[in-house]
């Protein structure tokens, strides 16, 4: 028997937007995206006028400090966040700023994307915890279920299947083009984590009893 959590594990690697772009797409596109991020960071340091559709108003160090200040404004002590996780928030904010808007729209800074970056990372963390537990308690013990979509009975489960996961491969394929509109990839990710968040609140996935994890 197969359920939503196996579907999640099979269909998506549940990584951040940076990982989705850097790991799921073609080599040519990965190099292009990495170059965009590199140019953006460089432009912050050199205070260039613009890169892509970004207007740079801060150095990179100033940008990092501004993110720290915003985290503190949200009653989050940035010293409690590991360096790797903090860098991930920065990279996710930059990725969102580069890919969220269409190239014809000019945006002046990436600070507004901190909340979205945090929300995406938070829900990716939820997904990782779910999948890790499923792999540890079921797959590792030889209870890897066969595929049976009839086990999906919650409306939100079908929302995730039809509204999100069924589109995953086509979205990735359509984005594997340097002329693609990357904002569609970001829109897909935002909708996905939003639906995951709603489902997670409705169904207590990681609390006992965990009958909904089993077929």
UniProtKB/TrEMBL annotation:
Molecular function, one GO term: ATP binding
Domain DALR anticodon binding: 120-215
InterPro entries: DALR_anticod-bd, DALRD3, tRNAsynth_Ia_anticodon-bd
GO terms under biological process: arginyl-tRNA aminoacylation; tRNA C3-cytosine methylation
PANTHER family: DALR ANTICODON-BINDING DOMAIN-CONTAINING PROTEIN 3 (PTHR16043:SF1), DALRD3 PROTEIN (PTHR16043)
Protein name, entry field: DALR anticodon binding domain-containing protein
Source organism (scientific name): Medioppia subpectinata
Lineage of source species: Eukaryota, Metazoa, Ecdysozoa, Arthropoda, Chelicerata
């Amino acid at each position: 028997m197969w359920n939503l959590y196996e579907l999640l594990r099979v269909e998506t690697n549940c990584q951040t937007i940076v990982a989705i772009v850097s790991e799921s797409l073609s080599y040519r596109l990965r190099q292009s995206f990495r170059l965009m991020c590199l140019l953006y960071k460089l432009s912050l340091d050199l205070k260039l006028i613009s890169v892509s559709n970004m207007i740079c108003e801060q150095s990179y160090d100033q940008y990092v400090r501004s993110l720290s200040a915003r985290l503190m404004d949200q009653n989050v002590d940035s010293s409690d966040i590991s360096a790797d996780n903090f860098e991930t928030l920065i990279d996710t904010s930059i990725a969102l700023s580069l890919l969220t808007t269409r190239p014809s729209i000019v945006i002046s800074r990436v600070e507004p994307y901190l909340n979205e970056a945090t929300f995406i990372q938070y829900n990716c963390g939820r997904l990782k915890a779910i999948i890790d537990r499923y792999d540890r308690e079921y797959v590792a013990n030889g209870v890897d279920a066969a595929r049976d979509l009839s086990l999906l009975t919650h409306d939100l489960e079908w929302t995730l299947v039809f509204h999100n996961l069924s589109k995953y491969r086509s979205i990735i394929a359509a984005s594997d083009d340097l002329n693609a509109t990357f904002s569609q990839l970001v829109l897909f990710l935002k909708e996905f984590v939003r639906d995951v968040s709603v489902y997670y609140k409705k169904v207590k996935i990681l609390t006992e009893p965990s009958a909904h994890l089993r077929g």
